[in-house]
From TrEMBL:
<protein>
    <recommendedName>
        <fullName>Probable membrane transporter protein</fullName>
    </recommendedName>
</protein>
<dbReference type="InterPro" id="IPR002781">
    <property type="entry name" value="TM_pro_TauE-like"/>
</dbReference>
<feature type="transmembrane region" description="Helical">
    <location>
        <begin position="264"/>
        <end position="282"/>
    </location>
</feature>
<keyword id="KW-1133">Transmembrane helix</keyword>
<feature type="transmembrane region" description="Helical">
    <location>
        <begin position="97"/>
        <end position="116"/>
    </location>
</feature>
<feature type="transmembrane region" description="Helical">
    <location>
        <begin position="204"/>
        <end position="225"/>
    </location>
</feature>
<keyword id="KW-0812">Transmembrane</keyword>
<dbReference type="Pfam" id="PF01925">
    <property type="entry name" value="TauE"/>
</dbReference>
<dbReference type="InterPro" id="IPR051598">
    <property type="entry name" value="TSUP/Inactive_protease-like"/>
</dbReference>
<keyword id="KW-1003">Cell membrane</keyword>
<keyword id="KW-0472">Membrane</keyword>
<feature type="transmembrane region" description="Helical">
    <location>
        <begin position="175"/>
        <end position="197"/>
    </location>
</feature>
<feature type="transmembrane region" description="Helical">
    <location>
        <begin position="136"/>
        <end position="155"/>
    </location>
</feature>
<dbReference type="GO" id="GO:0005886">
    <property type="term" value="C:plasma membrane"/>
</dbReference>
<comment type="similarity">
    <text>Belongs to the 4-toluene sulfonate uptake permease (TSUP) (TC 2.A.102) family.</text>
</comment>
<feature type="region of interest" description="Disordered">
    <location>
        <begin position="307"/>
        <end position="331"/>
    </location>
</feature>
Length: 331
């Protein structure tokens, strides 16, 4: 029962992050399942089964708040589903000894990307409103879906930054569209795992626990996407994923590092993580101050503009010639 409660809380927290950042539900949940010893394929299958419900709820919530571009959902979601089915099949056919470090390596890479992306870079708002090309979204969806299934997460970390970097959509619509299209990816990946594995190793109680936590958080996250600073949240989540998967890799048969090396790596990770969070917060405050100053300057410039002349203030040439008196009527 304690495990189920922890999983429900993890699902709630993961969905709050995912709905606010457009990424990290699968990465966060899969990291937790691997940490408690779940088989990699079963962990990814468990997460994707839960995501069928959480992504559906999240998509509806984002749609209600006007955060979804349905053209983008279809253009990236269908290729994503194809990639996810293929990725589930590949992961299901790997041995546990190989799959665990492979999955942790993918998750670690995504964690590093999250940490660097949200610590060092803001959101580029140039080129907003330009249409997204199918030739860009199709291959992106295919790769992101494959990574998502093999890594237990990755749809958001691959898809969201790529679309944000294009600068053609508002951040809230990028997040809403990625979260909504993930429903197709979750369904396809789940079918791939069920075909390849059956129900072997999947604990449906864990699926339900993750699902309940995620569904509770989905509408809250859709609202929070307008208020939570993504820079700070991304740094926090990225560091957590790096710390957890570093531990898994250092203890794997691939590396099997001695205790002294492990402790040194853990210390380095925690120091870098703390520095990244502090830097993200300071940059967030700096950006907010700059935005406020820009808004004040723009308002002052608007007030300083001369009022346009209207008919009431334009001098009448005839009155000027007669000293301000109306001219005498003419026959």
């Amino acid at each position: 029962m304690k495990t189920l409660i922890l999983l429900a809380l993890a699902g709630l927290g993961a969905q709050l992050v995912d709905g606010s950042l457009g990424m990290a539900y699968g990465v966060t949940s899969s990291t937790l399942l691997l940490a408690i010893g779940t088989n990699p394929a079963a962990a990814s299958a468990t997460v994707h089964l839960a995501e069928i419900g959480t992504t559906l709820m999240s998509g509806v919530a984002h749609w209600k708040f006007g955060n979804v571009d349905w053209r983008v959902v279809l253009k990236i979601g269908v290729p994503g589903a194809v990639g996810a089915f293929a990725g589930a099949t590949v992961l299901s056919n790997l041995s546990t000894a190989v799959a665990a470090p492979v999955m942790s390596l993918i998750l670690l890479s995504l964690g590093v990307y999250l940490l660097v992306r949200f610590t060092l870079r803001g959101i580029d708002r140039r080129h907003l409103g330009k249409p997204m090309r199918k030739r860009f979204l199709g291959p992106l969806g295919l790769v992101a879906g494959f990574v998502d299934a093999t890594g237990g997460g990755g749809w958001g970390p691959v898809g969201t930054p790529a679309i944000l970097a294009s600068g053609r959509m508002e951040p809230r619509k990028v997040i809403g569209s990625i979260d909504t299209s993930e429903f197709l990816v979750a369904v396809a990946a789940s079918l791939g795992f069920l075909v390849a594995l059956g129900s072997q190793g999947i604990d449906f109680g864990w699926v339900v626990a993750l699902l309940i936590g995620g569904m509770v958080a989905a509408p809250i996250a859709a609202w929070l996407v307008r208020h939570v600073p993504p820079r700070l949240l991304g740094s926090l989540v990225g560091g957590m994923i790096i710390a957890t998967n570093s531990r898994t890799l250092l203890r794997s048969d691939w590396i099997d590092a001695p205790d002294a090396v492990r402790n040194a790596v853990y210390a380095l990770v925690y120091v870098v993580w703390a520095a990244a969070v502090v830097w993200s917060y300071l940059q967030y405050r700096k950006d907010r101050t700059q935005e406020s100053a820009d808004a004040v300057s723009a308002h002052a410039a608007l007030l300083a503009e001369p009022a346009p002349a209207d008919a009431a203030t334009v001098p009448d040439p005839e009155r000027q010639l007669t000293g301000g008196r109306p001219s005498a009527p003419t026959d």
